[in-house]
Amino acid sequence: MSTKFLRIIEFLVIGVVFGVVEDLMIIHFVTHAQINLGIIWLVFLVSLPFAFLSEIVVDHPRFWENIFGKRKD
Fold it and tell me: How much is the pTM?
């Protein structure tokens, strides 16, 4: 499998699915709100940009190198 394909799978599973489940648990335990399809859709829409930022942008192998520049040993 290619690296890009694996990063997309990681984004979908770790970033989106785990992010949505985590947020739904927080909403349920803190607010005791009834979880319905509308809440799930809203949580998905809110979680999506954060999942993209963390899994695709920050986890890129050269992200920190691009931010701070190359290390000079």
Answer: 0.67
